[in-house]
Amino acid sequence: MVRKQSDSDESRDQMLSGSAWMTAGSILSRFLGAIYIIPWGIWFGNYFFRANALYGLGYNIYSFFLIAAIAGIPSAIAKQVAHYNALNEYGVGVRLYKRGLVLAAIMGIICAAILYFGAPLIDDGNPNVIPILRSLAWAVLIIPTMSLTRGYFQGYQQMAPSAISQFVEQLARVLYMLLTAFVMMQILHVDWVKAVSQSTFAAFVGAAAGMISLMVYYLKHRDVFRSLVRNSNNQLRVSPKELYREIVAQAVPFIILGAGITIFMLIDQFTFFKIMRVATTYSEATLADLYAMFAVNANKLIMITVSLASALAITAVPLLSIALTNSEKKEISRQISNVIVLFLFVMIPASLGMAAIAGPLNRVFYGTTQQALGANILTFSSIVSIPMGLFVVISAVMQGLSENKRAVRFFLVGTLVKLLIQWPCIYFLGAFGPLLSTGIGLSVANWLILRSLDRQFGFEKRMLSIAMEKISKYSLFMYLITILVVHGANIVLGYVYHPFGRSGSLLVSLVGVGIGGLIYIYLTLKSRIADMVLGPRSNRLRRMLRIR
Fold first, then answer.
1. Residue 448 falls within a domain, yes or no?
2. Key word Transmembrane helix present in the record (predicted)?
């Protein structure tokens, strides 16, 4: 299953194939995780923004505990399994996975217990958060084991099971959320906090469904995995103690870096309300609405584009580990450059595209309540998603190259920068402040990481320079055209339906995405810049679209 990476085309094809699976799984999952908000919000009625803010307050704390429970073990397992597979020592990878399962189960139990029984100590003075945290604690029991199993498959560059289980997990979660929200709010008319707690308990339901899908995949391919173990060298002997040491040594940096964006969100959660109470005379309900707009509403949408970066990161780690194992410095340099070009090719147009349709997109998901402010926050969040996505990718690259300590140090510098500017940013810019401090802090960390990678391994600078120039130019052109299309469509629909609601906004969004996407695809294929990413596939696309 794992072959030696010896040329750029092969590594690019593997990265593209893996990224395609992970991107599909991430996009579909994130889309489901965003689209549910429309009926969910309608059923919660006047409680919608408060319910969404409460959901976000609980989920941010849960996300941190979940990352602690997972402890970076899945990514560490993926990296080390790929390393041993490259040495044709598949048996060691299997033993590594089994030892990891024990650690994952223990961490899951410990973190779930702390989250459940310690909820009153970390509710930040909001008693409504306690039942939310306790309902989420159940998911922490299962998800570490599920994530570890995904990491094991990724070590074989098998991204399909991870992508499929991710989609199954999200589908089950959303269905349970919608079912309970409808029954509790529309039929039983219970307290809205209880309905939110069932929506968060859906994380456990989704995790169980995702784990079952992974088990089914393994059972169907069990003979293949056993055959690889039988036919491997089986000469390397690694003691159980050494296996645990490897897992822990690799996992600790993954905890910090994997929790990077979550840590920034927690900083926002525990500082925004305090600073805004000093800076303004807004009521608690208004502050909750503002928090929901930038930390939950906009974040839910931009994470669709950031998930593109996550897909690249997951694919890059085992490939880079193999190249490092084989001491192929030129291959490492090519792969790092390929990762960055692929990131630029996807992330820049996706972020600018979302910024261009922010107005109608915000109406589709969140209605017309404070529409102008919500749209502006989403526009700004879309731009900030670029440094967020870049951090996800290049921190994973550092981990794949065993530059863990250096990557953690750079992240801590970025975190310090955010903490230093957090107060003035929020005091003077309100809901935009946390986004700006996040963008600046992550940009500092990104610059330090890129400088380190260039010094140690080097980049293919000519390729990166051409890609950056053309992708930025085409993305900006696409952005401007999409803005004009959206404004034109708004005017036309405004005459027909005044004012127009979700259905009209959805139509405007689809038209904007369709035209903007076609323009970007045409320009990148026509200029041959797409060839850097897609290789020979570009020729087939040009023939299909009759582009010369």
1. no
2. yes
Based on the structure, what is the number of domains in the chain? Answer: 1
145-162 pLDDT, tens per residue?
Answer: 888 888 788 777 777 787
| pLDDT score recorded for residue 15 | 47
245 in a domain, yes or no?
A: yes
Which domain range does residue 192 map to?
36-255
% of the chain with per-residue pLDDT over 70:
84
Residue-wise DSSP of 436-447: HHHHHHHHHHHH
Q: What is the DSSP letter of 188?
A: S
List the Cα angle 504/377/467 in 5-degree steps: 90
Q: Is residue 364 part of a domain?
A: no
Can you tell me the distance from the alpha carbon of 384 to that of 381, in angstroms, rounded to the nearest whole number?
5
226 close to 55: Cβ distance less than 8 angstroms: no
Residue 217 C-alpha from the chain's centroid: 24
> Considering the domain boundaries, does residue 61 fall inside one?
yes
Measured between alpha carbons, how far is 431 from 443 in angstroms, rounded to an integer? 20
- Rounded to two decimals, the pTM is 0.75
CB neighbours of residue 242 within 10 Å: 11
Spans of the chain, pLDDT less than 50:
1-8, 12, 15-16, 18
Locate tokens 């074989």: which residue?
156
